[in-house]
Design brief:
seven-stranded mixed sheet, L-fuculose-1-phosphate Aldolase
């Protein structure tokens, strides 16, 4: 067959980018993420609710121990550094915290410390010392952000590496939309945090609504509105995205062009991903796996 000449002069029609909106979707962000049966009797559960503050206290402590053991599993432990705090449901001006020098993988409900409003160990929890920098950061954060229950900070590898640039991550992937208009950068390093002013500066950088921060030359810090699971999931997501950013920057330095998600698509995706119940549901598989693997050791 003789070759056929192709007309390459005709313009190629490119369809416009497909855009979604929330108008036809469920008003409940969690319900957008799963499908049950036609009868509507199959549901995915969000954050549990409690009428009894003492029952909620036990749940909070279990969540906190699981969060630390997950951090240990991920290799985030580094000497005396790292802390997660969560408000106590019984005494809301107090918070629970890990003892200093206890490996993340060894944190259980029985060695958690209750911290008083003035930053000292309370008699109701484990009678163990706590991290001074953690008290300075978290006490200030809990006062500055009454909308959050949890604050989490440690020196994870990729978070530390990206923090030296003093820049936010780019919203380049679907999971990065969790941080669309939701990530602060604290562009200062004043040394190890041993004064309340530094905690106040970090709180100011976060502002009234952001749930995560990159602390320049230091690491990552995340918050949770209702549960430890939120702060831990947001932390591990940001840590992994810092690794992605480092990989992308290395590729871009060799001539590859990176594509950033536009504001419209990022905002649409963030409206679902940033919902506290969705964040909790995203971390729930890790919590259930830890229970299976460790036989409820975190409850001891």
């Amino acid at each position: 067959m003789a070759p056929v000449a192709l007309d390459t002069s005709a313009p190629v029609s490119t369809p416009p980018p497909f855009k979604q909106d929330l108008s036809s979707l469920s008003k409940n962000p969690l319900q957008r993420t799963y499908r049950g049966n036609k009868e509507g009797t199959i549901h995915m559960e969000g954050i549990p609710q409690f009428d009894d503050p003492y029952q909620k206290r036990e749940w909070v402590k279990e969540q906190l121990a699981i969060g630390f053991q997950y951090w240990g599993k991920e290799g985030y432990a580094e000497g005396l550094s790292g802390h997660i705090t969560v408000r106590d449901p019984v005494l809301p001006d107090h918070y629970w915290m890990n003892a200093i020098g206890v490996h993340f993988s060894a944190v259980t409900t029985s060695n958690l410390v209750l911290v008083s409003p003035d930053g000292f160990v309370h008699p109701d929890g484990a009678q163990l010392p706590i991290n001074e920098a953690g008290v300075q950061i978290h006490s200030t954060l809990h006062r500055a952000r009454p909308d959050v229950q949890v604050a989490a900070h440690c020196h994870s590898l990729h978070g530390k590496a990206w923090s030296v640039f003093g820049k936010p991550i780019d919203v380049m992937t679907q999971d990065a939309c969790l941080f669309y208009d939701n990530l602060a950068v604290y562009r200062n390093f004043g040394g190890i945090v041993l004064a309340p002013e530094e905690g106040a500066n970090i709180a100011a950088a976060l502002g009234p609504h952001k749930m995560a921060a990159i602390l320049q030359n230091h690491g990552l810090l995340t918050l949770g509105q209702h549960s430890v699971a939120e702060a831990v999931y947001i932390f591990q997501s940001l840590e992994r995205l810092c690794k992605v950013q480092l990989m992308v920057e290395a590729a871009a330095a060799n001539g590859l062009e990176k594509k950033v998600i536009d504001d419209e698509d990022a905002a649409f995706t963030a409206a679902t991903l940033q919902n506290p119940h969705n964040i909790y549901a995203n971390f729930r598989p890790e919590m259930e796996l830890l229970k299976m693997e460790r036989g409820h050791l975190f409850l001891k």
